[in-house]
């Protein structure tokens, strides 16, 4: 009984190290907003990528140091909403959408609202959904999609007024992908503490070299490919695409698609039905 109360008190504590990374990510997201308001779009986009790095570190540091807490989880969600919800929406609006009037701010709002819905859905599905996959595009990846596009456009001096409608479409689409049911690899099955072959280390060095040549273009293209991978994975792993595979509140669990074929059989309408259910229907 005493151990249970001690554990409860521990979970309610505030640990410095993981929350330090969360605060750094929050600061980067806030800086991105300020920089975009001052017309420093390239710096704002880079700040969002820095927030991504901090967001990836805080959770892993908490698990490695056994400093997880309820406060840290809630604080991380609030910081993510600023860094990957508000910041990208304001950044893209200031860069290319403000001249579109209502269409511009509505596209930015769609992205922002979808980011909030994505984070809320993720928090309610912890421990339920398949950890190997994200249900919908993760908010950091969606933010990287927007930030990478603006970083590339600013670096190569593309006139945002020439592509304002394209920017509005990509912004709204990134938001809708966040609340979709498309499955995206989470890469959580990777054992970061495990041993690897020497060739793997050489490949990692090569990846860093390639990114350093043209970081804006390489990162932008990488996240575009990742954004497109969700629909591809979903369509590839199911036999018949339905509405719930694209949109809805159904919890995505890939194990349902991997059931042995002898546990199911088809009815006369060619729909897959569990054997026990079909027998009862007969």
TrEMBL record:
<keyword id="KW-1133">Transmembrane helix</keyword>
<feature type="transmembrane region" description="Helical">
    <location>
        <begin position="12"/>
        <end position="34"/>
    </location>
</feature>
<dbReference type="InterPro" id="IPR043130">
    <property type="entry name" value="CDP-OH_PTrfase_TM_dom"/>
</dbReference>
<keyword id="KW-0472">Membrane</keyword>
<dbReference type="InterPro" id="IPR048254">
    <property type="entry name" value="CDP_ALCOHOL_P_TRANSF_CS"/>
</dbReference>
<keyword id="KW-0444">Lipid biosynthesis</keyword>
<keyword id="KW-0594">Phospholipid biosynthesis</keyword>
<keyword id="KW-0443">Lipid metabolism</keyword>
<comment type="similarity">
    <text>Belongs to the CDP-alcohol phosphatidyltransferase class-I family.</text>
</comment>
<dbReference type="InterPro" id="IPR050324">
    <property type="entry name" value="CDP-alcohol_PTase-I"/>
</dbReference>
<keyword id="KW-0808">Transferase</keyword>
<feature type="transmembrane region" description="Helical">
    <location>
        <begin position="103"/>
        <end position="120"/>
    </location>
</feature>
<protein>
    <recommendedName>
        <fullName>CDP-diacylglycerol--serine O-phosphatidyltransferase</fullName>
        <ecNumber>2.7.8.8</ecNumber>
    </recommendedName>
</protein>
<keyword id="KW-0812">Transmembrane</keyword>
<dbReference type="Pfam" id="PF01066">
    <property type="entry name" value="CDP-OH_P_transf"/>
</dbReference>
<dbReference type="InterPro" id="IPR000462">
    <property type="entry name" value="CDP-OH_P_trans"/>
</dbReference>
<feature type="transmembrane region" description="Helical">
    <location>
        <begin position="163"/>
        <end position="184"/>
    </location>
</feature>
<feature type="transmembrane region" description="Helical">
    <location>
        <begin position="196"/>
        <end position="226"/>
    </location>
</feature>
<dbReference type="InterPro" id="IPR004533">
    <property type="entry name" value="CDP-diaglyc--ser_O-PTrfase"/>
</dbReference>
<keyword id="KW-1208">Phospholipid metabolism</keyword>
<feature type="compositionally biased region" description="Basic and acidic residues">
    <location>
        <begin position="258"/>
        <end position="269"/>
    </location>
</feature>
<feature type="region of interest" description="Disordered">
    <location>
        <begin position="254"/>
        <end position="282"/>
    </location>
</feature>
<feature type="transmembrane region" description="Helical">
    <location>
        <begin position="132"/>
        <end position="151"/>
    </location>
</feature>
């Amino acid at each position: 009984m005493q151990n249970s109360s001690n554990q409860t008190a521990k979970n309610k504590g505030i640990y410095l190290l993981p929350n330090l990374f969360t605060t750094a990510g929050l600061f980067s997201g806030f800086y991105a907003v300020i920089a975009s308001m001052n017309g420093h779009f390239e710096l704002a986009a880079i700040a969002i990528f820095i927030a991504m790095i901090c967001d990836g570190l805080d959770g892993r540091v908490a698990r490695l140091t056994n400093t997880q807490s309820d406060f840290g989880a809630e604080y991380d969600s609030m910081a993510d909403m600023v860094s990957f919800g508000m910041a990208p929406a304001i950044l893209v609006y200031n860069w290319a959408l403000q001249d579109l009037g209502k269409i511009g701010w509505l596209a930015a709002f769609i992205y922002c609202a979808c980011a909030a819905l994505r984070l809320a859905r993720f928090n309610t599905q912890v421990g339920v959904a398949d950890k190997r996959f994200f249900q919908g595009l993760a908010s950091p990846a969606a933010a990287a999609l927007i930030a990478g596009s603006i970083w590339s456009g600013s670096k190569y001096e593309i006139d945002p007024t020439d592509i304002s409608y394209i920017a509005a479409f990509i912004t709204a689409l990134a938001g809708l992908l966040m609340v979709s049911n498309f499955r995206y690899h989470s890469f959580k099955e990777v054992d970061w503490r495990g041993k690897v072959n020497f060739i793997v280390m050489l490949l990692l060095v090569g990846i860093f070299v390639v990114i350093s040549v043209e970081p804006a273009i390489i990162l932008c293209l990488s996240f575009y490919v990742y954004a497109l991978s969700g629909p591809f994975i979903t369509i590839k792993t199911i036999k018949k695409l339905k509405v719930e595979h694209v949109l809805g509140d159904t919890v995505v669990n890939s194990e349902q698609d991997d059931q042995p074929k002898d546990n199911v059989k088809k009815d006369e309408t060619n729909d897959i039905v569990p054997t026990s259910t079909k027998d009862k229907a007969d």
